[in-house]
Every structure is written in structure tokens, then in C-alpha cells.
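User: Reviewer 2 asked us to show a designed sequence for the structure in our supplementary figure. I'm pasting the C-alpha cells here. Could you produce the per-position amino acids so we can include them in the response letter?
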């Protein structure tokens, strides 16, 4: 038997952390709106937009895309 505990938390990110979190959320929204879950398709879909919108370095934008692709792929495989 597994017992799960939950709690409410409040994130207090600094400016760079906030940009990274917003980048991940926006990339996730774009991917799910287009029903794209592959890393390269998500990259093509939102990489330039994220770089322009948030002024992120290339590596940060790529990591945001990879994080969304990893989580989106898992969600898609569970649903299907």
C-alpha cells in the first residue's frame, strides 16, 4: 500500500528562474495545442519564439524544449 502526501507550496523564483518556468509553460502549451510531442517537432514549433520572447540563451531554450518533450511523450504514451 502506497500512501501519498500532498502539500501546497508557493514558488518564489528569481527573475531568471521565472523566465525559465514561463518558457517551459509556454512551450508546453504550444506543444499540446498542436498535439506535437516529439523533441524535434516541438523545437521547430517554439524554439525561435521562446528565444525572442524571453531572451533566453540557446542552451536554456533547448533544455525547455527537451523537458516539455520528455513530459509530453510520457503523457501521450500513458493516454494511448
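Assistant: Here is a per-position design you can include in the supplement:
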Amino acid at each position: 500500500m502506497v500512501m501519498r502526501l500532498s502539500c501546497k507550496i508557493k514558488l518564489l523564483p528569481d527573475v531568471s528562474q521565472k523566465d525559465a518556468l514561463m518558457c517551459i509553460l509556454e512551450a508546453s502549451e504550444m506543444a499540446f495545442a498542436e498535439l506535437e510531442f516529439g523533441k524535434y517537432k516541438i523545437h521547430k514549433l517554439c524554439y525561435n519564439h521562446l528565444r525572442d520572447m524571453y531572451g533566453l540563451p540557446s542552451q536554456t531554450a533547448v533544455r525547455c524544449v527537451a523537458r516539455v518533450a520528455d513530459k509530453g511523450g510520457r503523457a501521450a504514451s500513458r493516454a494511448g
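For the response letter, you might also mention the following. Residues 27 and 76 are 16 Å apart (CA to CA). The radius of gyration is 14 Å.
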